[in-house]
Design goal:
Protein name: RNA transcription, translation and transport factor protein
Number of helices: 11
Oligomer: single chain
Family: Belongs to the RTRAF family.
Strand content: under 5%
Structural class: mainly alpha
Helix content: 55-70%
Organism: Nothocercus nigrocapillus
Amino acid sequence: MFRRKLSALDYHNPAGFNCRDETEFRNFIVWLEDQKIRHYKIEDRGNLRNIHSDDWPKSFEKYMKDVNCPFKIQERQETVDWLLGLAVRLEYGDNADKYKDSNPDGAKNADNTAKNAEPLINLDVNNPDFKAGVMALANLLQIQRHDDYLVMLKVSSPTFERLTQDAIAKANQSKEGLPVALEKHILGFDTGDAVLNEAAQILRLLHIEELRELQTKINEAIVAVQAIIADPKTDHRLGKVGR
């Protein structure tokens, strides 16, 4: 599930890593902090390095808060994926010049057709990385979890449709509404990135607007049905009331 990110970070056993193994997981967290993330000063890593301590889970939970990880300690797979993403981002930042001009294998032989190909055509919905990404997105937008990952993706898709070029152009033609002060809307979590926090606030507000529009349509349908039921036609010849 994490093989590509682990390989990118030169982890010694990317194919065999098992985050459910407690000892391996704790050693992995220490390696990740010591070698890649380096959020703490060396002298402040003692509690995290003491993997045999009964208090290690508390130290790890504090570490998650310090690096602004949005997941809970019980959500181990999501936490590992998020920490790996943070480590990859930091690794790239430290070696930007090294990766700036690098090309993936075979990129030089790719033709224009491949560049214009639909990026989702070969998407494997059963891929663990895809599932982890959908789960992270659902947590970010605070969407209720579902056993079917495609259902969660469909729930979040209307929000992102509002950000397409056509939707933006249509919105610009519509009547201007009241300005929204984002600082007055509490997000409820912190991604550690101010820009990402603001984007999450906007996405949540758009999602709420979609729900309100749906509720309005439901109310209109109920009113229409009630109007039909409350005004039946009477046929005296049949001695019945109704249509």
